[in-house]
Amino acid sequence: MRIRAGAWPAFFAEPAHLFTDCVVDAGAVWPHTIAALSDRLGSAVEDRERITAIVDFLCVRRRERRRGVATAVARILASQGCGRVAALAHDAGVSARQLERAFRTDVGVSPKELSRLVRFQRALRLSAGAENAASWAGVAAACGFTDQSHLIRDFRQFAGETPATLAASAASVADYFLRR
Description:
The chain has 180 residues and is an all-alpha fold. 64% of the residues lie in helices and 0% in strands. The chain has helices at 26-29, 34-43, 47-61, 67-78, 85-92, 96-106, 111-126, 133-142, 148-159, 163-179.
């Protein structure tokens, strides 16, 4: 299960950063109740029953979220990762450090890291038509990167390769399926 940024504290008491970039068995988080959900899902005949079981399970665990973090996450997503952390903190009425700590607990990453991830995801979507250096510079500018080398650094960190290499491998996979 993937959890949308900022939604973690609505269902979990544990800090999100303990689970960032890892896979955890649900039984380790909900040891007493996950078996009942598993049984209910296993006995369900239709998808509608499975969805209802999951919704019921999550609704029982629903908790109140911190408004400042939820608002800051929404602003980061709306700005496509181009906002400033200082402005987010100011609008939330807290210091930048307090906002960072709250993000680490509720989101699992800092506001700056979430902004970088959002920009990277946007660059991935826009990169479909980028084939040369001018195209990559345009993608970098459209996504709020300071320059093309900034875009390349983030691609290397998040994808493990340059944007051009990633685009070429994605194109070859797409070609394989289109030709068959």
